[in-house]
Amino acid sequence: MNLRAPAILLASRPQGETGAIARLLTAEAGLVAGYVAGGRGRQMRAVMVPGNRVSLDLATRPGGSQLPFAKLELEHSRAALMTEPLPAAAIQWVCGLTAAALPERNAYPGLYEALDGLLDAITLAPSARGWVSGLIAYETMLLRELGYGGGRPDNAADFSALMDALAALEPLLAHYLLAGRKGDVMAARIQLTERLARMA
After folding, report:
1. Is residue 65's pLDDT more than 80?
2. Are residues 181 and 89 part of one domain?
3. In CA terms, which of 10, 31, 55, 132 is 20 to 30 Å from 48?
């Protein structure tokens, strides 16, 4: 697989002494994974942050039996938000959910645009009240795209109603998208909703 495209970095984990395996979402190829040489090094530290939008160059290794090589260049950084507890929790959750729920190499261009828009909202909104409705819409869209419901989120203005909507989505996400070994991802959502509840 060879691909050049904008991508959202969803997750990375160490591989070898200095490398990393990155999972990224693209509009045209969906969820892809690749090996980033030096991904744990000082130069790449600011790039390898969940939520960052990058320019991805993915190239299949000879033989095709191993992960492709991935070269990443930073397009838009959201790393500064990782020092803010609430935005950081939101970014960790939506990126972790997307990485765990989507099958690899199936295109979901609408989800790519929705996730990028949600991450922008988390970046730009002065408080969580400006992006919680977007989070609900994204979770609902993800369930719908994967065949687990076609409902539309309520456009509630009241924050307590938004919290109720988040609570209603939790069992659906846990049961349909994150069952089994993926259940560990739900810990990030629980942390997020606990922080949001303090605002209510």
Report:
1. no
2. yes
3. 132
